[in-house]
Amino acid sequence: MLTITQVHYIRELYFLEGKTFSEISSMTGKNYRTVKKYIEMNDFNEKQHKAKRPNQSDVLRPIIKEWLTEDKSRHHKQRHTAKRIYDRLMQEHSDIMEVSDRTVRTLVKEEKDKIYGSDKAHLLLVHPGGEAQIDFADIEAFENGSLKKFHELILSFPKSNAGFALITRSETREALLEGLETFFHFIGYVPSAIWFDQMSSAALRTKDEKGRVKVTDFMMRFATHYGFAVKLCNPDSGNEKGNVENKVGTIRRNLLVPEPVITNLKSFNAKLLESCTLLNQQKHYRLKEPVDKLFAAETSLMRPVSKIAFDTSRYEARKVNTYGLVEFSGCRYSASPKYVGQTVTLKIMANEIAIYSKDFSERITHHPRLFDKGTESIHYIDFIDVVKLRPNALKYSGIYSLLPVSWQDYLHSLDKEAFKKAFDVLKMILIEEDLNYADKVLKETARHESTSPEAIAITYKRLKENRILYESAIDFPTDLPPYVVDTSQYDLLIGGSHS
Question: What strands lie across the sheet with 146-157, from one edge to the other?
Fold first, then answer.
């Protein structure tokens, strides 16, 4: 027999959502005839029963219930035992005490089950197949030798208990939507509905003119593109997405302990998804069937992922300040100095920010996205031309502190004209190589007692040519016969003696 909650759900699917008997049977796991019975039922009055015949223990139940209820607020070591209740009944209510010690013990057990049973009970939820839940959680991982904060993005499917994970650098809208796209393409299907908590940081919700919460237009376009329904949990209602919260812990314990080492986030996530697939081969905690088998059956309730990509990026206009920088979310990024005072467009992605001209005719530069307020990402090569024209400002620019000591000393020794030429050479090197290579070129040039900008350029080209030659895959013969030079004939020709 079904509970009234289950019956209500079945009837809601039929009368409000237009599902057929077969569809409801498949979604709820209930027999076709059972579904048909409750949909056709039109009388839900409780059946009347004959009144119970009173017995000698009935007068004791209210007293026992009162004492046990009071116990809930006491320390567990100072609560009534069945024997103590029997003794108190004998002392305080001897006039109505007409039952045995055994009967009192039975009454105590029954009343305890009523009082404490609800604390221990769990409602077995019936999840419609094809639906998913999504959530973020904090984790730590090593990157570049240091322990950093990352985020675990989990997509779980309550019906089959399948789960998939990705690591993100933030909980921004871009990280969420790019993560969902990655999940969709890895699985090959899109859930029929996805449950979200109140993700204010992800900018998924807003309020209408009457103050009611609704999904943002951008999120609705994303959902419409891929074909899933957006469902928002109520505030402070973790039970509404309990499956994904359990899956967060399961994946963390099984795949992210101890702290993982991340060298390339994209490659790491590709391996993590494969590990989730292996984890899904375990048996369902209740159904005792492999989770991946249950999930494969669940995909019949989803739709194949669209092959047309959705642009999850955010676009914002920013003005380039007098230092050639633009600011976004408390962080600074360099643009080309020629755009100082002009408006540019930022393309904001989960882990990258690209800077375009206002009309998108030119992609100026791009940077890794920063999340710590006050930090900056600057491509100093973009500012070489500015420093070249203002040599006195070199020591006060960020590029000076980045230069190797050899280059700092060298530039300090030049006159204005040579200074400009040296910066042209430095720019030429940095376009193809890095500052370490520039240091190597300058030191190699100094060995030949000439450090003019022209000599540095020649040294750079020579090193590049030699490197191409000796690092190429040319096979030089190693078994040539030895060759001995005989100079005696030359000695005779020039009148020398041969001894």
Answer: 162-168, 146-157, 131-143, 193-196, 229-232
Torsion of CA 23, 25, 26, 29, to 10 degrees: 160
Residue pair 352/369 in contact by the 8 Å Cβ criterion: yes
Q: Is residue 96 part of a domain?
A: yes
What does the DSSP 8-state code read for residue 283? B
Spatial separation of the C-alpha atoms in residues 190 and 130, rounded to whole Å: 8
**Do residues 189 and 254 both lie within one domain?**
yes
Do residues 319 and 326 make contact, with C-beta atoms less than 8 angstroms apart? yes
Give me the average pLDDT of each 10-residue run along the chain (499 residues).
Answer: 75 81 89 87 53 68 88 76 90 88 90 70 61 90 91 91 93 92 94 77 62 77 86 62 78 87 94 93 84 90 88 91 88 85 92 91 90 85 64 56 77 81 82 80 83 87 68 48 68 63
Q: Exposed/middle/buried for 86, CB within 10 Å: 0-12, 13-18, 19+?
A: buried
Model pTM? 0.60
- Max distance between CA atoms of the chain, in angstroms, equals 149
Answer whether 161's CB lies under 8 Å from 129's CB. Answer: no
Distance CA 349, CA 364 (A): 16
Q: Catalogue the E-assigned strands of 222-340.
A: 229-232, 303-304, 314-319, 325-328, 331-334
Phi and psi angles of residue 345, each rounded to the nearest 5 degrees, phi first: -115, 130
> Based on the domain organization, do 366 and 390 belong to the same domain?
no
b (16+ CB within 10 A) / e for 88-105: ebeeeeeeebebeeeebe
Preceding omega of 258 cis (within 30 degrees of 0) = yes
Boundary of a domain, candidates 304, 323, 350? 304
Q: Which amino acid is at 170?
A: S
Q: What is the CATH number of the domain that holds 141?
A: 3.30.420.10
